[in-house]
Design a protein that fits this description.
CATH topology of the domain at 18-46 and 106-198: Rossmann fold
Order of helices and strands: EHEEEHEEHEHEHHEH
Largest sheet: 5 strands, parallel
Oligomer: single chain
Number of strands: 9
CATH architecture of the domain at 18-46 and 106-198: 3-Layer(aba) Sandwich
Shape: globular
Distance between the termini: 46 Å
Strand order of the largest sheet: 2-7-1-8-9
CATH superfamily of the domain at 18-46 and 106-198: P-loop containing nucleotide triphosphate hydrolases
Helix content: 25-40%
Strand content: 15-25%
Length: 209
């Protein structure tokens, strides 16, 4: 019989999470997060700053903050980036303050970054949740990169070689999802399931920036 005078069992509080979505170029990180936004998932999707030229289908301040190298350098000098990286000759950086503001509002924050950037976050914020998106095959990844038609053949070969090296880093992540062709809804739901599972941990992750 339960003693009504016994103290209540404490239920652990679950502070907001920082979720890192990474994987090789062309695996579908941008498309997966875009689908999550379309499905109205209640997360804060961090928008990355980049000096890369905007692709025709991209929207400024929604897909990326497209800024000049001078603007990027000024932000970097002010220490505004949680992490920054050079990827295929272009600068990428994520705002530290934007992450702090969203966490302060109680929102889980999702960042999509390359494998190099994920390694930086792992050192600085080890309690973040790290999800690796994997292509079903190298052949599938090559087809996705070719479909973009944004780079000459020599750059495509460089990206494919880099992707093979990046996929060797998967064991450093907490979770791996195979982003199948034409299956964005399934990928989005798997990421939401991971976040829901993380919020049921007996020992919650606590993000400190």
């Amino acid at each position: 019989m339960i003693d009504p005078a016994a103290p209540a069992i404490p239920i652990p509080e679950h502070p907001p999470l920082l979720i890192i979505v990474s994987g090789p170029s062309g695996v579908g990180k941008d498309a997966a997060l875009k689908r999550m936004r379309e499905l109205k998932f209640p997360f804060h999707f961090l928008v990355t700053n980049t000096t890369r030229p905007k692709r025709p289908e991209e929207v400024n301040d929604q897909d990326y903050h497209f800024i000049t190298p001078e603007q990027f350098a000024a932000m970097d000098a002010r220490g505004e980036f949680l992490e920054r990286a050079v990827v295929y000759g272009y600068d990428y950086g994520n705002s530290k303050q934007e992450v702090r503001d969203a966490l302060a509002r109680g929102q889980d924050v999702i960042m999509r970054i390359d494998v190099q950037g994920a390694a930086t976050i792992r050192r600085r914020v080890p309690e973040a949740v790290f999800i690796f998106l994997m292509p079903p095959s190298i052949k599938s990844l090559e087809a996705r990169l070719r479909k973009r038609r944004t780079e000459p053949e020599e750059y495509l070969k460089i990206r494919l070689h880099a992707a093979q090296l990046e996929m060797n880093e998967v064991e450093k992540f907490d979770y791996v999802i195979v982003n199948e062709d034409d299956a964005l809804d399934e990928t989005a739901e798997l990421m939401r399931a991971i976040i829901q599972a993380e919020r049921c941990r007996v020992k919650p992750r606590r993000i400190e920036l």
